Input
Amino acid sequence: MKKIFLSMALASSFMFAEEVKIGVVLPVSGAVGGFGELGKRGIDLAYKAQNKTKNGDPIKIVFVDNKSDKIESANAMQKLVSSDKVSVVIGPMISTNALAMTKIADDNQTPLIAPVATNDRVTKGKKFVSRISFADSFQGIIAANLAFKDLGAKKAAILFDNSSDYSIGLTKSFRNQFKKLGGQIAIETNAQAGTKDFKAQLSSIKAANPDVLYLPIYYNEGALIALQAKQLGISIPTIGGDGLVSNQIFFDVAKEAGEGYMVTDYYSTSSKQTPKGEAFIKEYEATYNEPVSTFSAMLADAYGIAVAAIEECGAQDRVCINDKIRNVKDYEGISGKFSLQNGEAIRSAVINQVQNGKLVYKTTIEP
Output
């Protein structure tokens, strides 16, 4: 008789279990497919660690490849909110693609966590969009302070991509802060995504004789610029944003030409770790046999706060889920301890530097 009752209880529990759907939009193909692959690793490991809520509800990941494209990103977001009816969406990776999704999130009252989309406009004025990285306005200031105060640079060159919201935002922030400190922008020139030859731009930069080069672009073009700058005999300190050396491609292509490059970032495995961070590093290195990617850690944290919010609110109450995500306080994640205030992260930043072909932690900058 006890066995019958137990079987009935288990069957009843299964019948009333509520499937939780979390949408994930990442580029695993296209120009920044490397970013998406690293982000997906974080989601995969986080899901492996927790694929049910604390109430036993199964979690389903509904994954869409946006192919590194903003139209594909918008289509993916529309599908997830209209057809799949997910509780929350995580992704994409870059600001341009995130900006194509934010209005759909607000219009459909579906929370969107854009973990590493750093352009200020991604969250500005939005009610259902959050991020757990810092914004470009903060990141650019840190880079300018590093250049002027720590490196003693008085003249800066900026090589940026004027087709990228990410690059434009970082450039504006760096430029304003560097000039505010008393520095001079000697030259600004364009490094269009997809370009292979940057020698003309680099020759102009060399002629301007700057003390530092600010390079707020992604890893594919960044690696080629490093190689060509070395070929032209440019040996000034170079500072980039979080996207510059964020993929192994940069190290494989740039090799020793990237030595000494400095970047602003959200996280380092060499900084002080939370218990979650220590466990994640161990699992990641055992699974992928390489150092933890910042993007993997950030996407895993996005999954963590999404699940925590769903556990508090239930899968159907997206307004409640959104409120919990946008105002999470003192969350001890994989990438460190952080809070969100109206969807904007309050967290420290780190400076990392390429040394002997690896990214080495230098220091932590508090907000």
Q: What stands out?
A: Residues 1-14 have pLDDT under 50 and may be disordered. The chain has 13 helices and 15 strands.
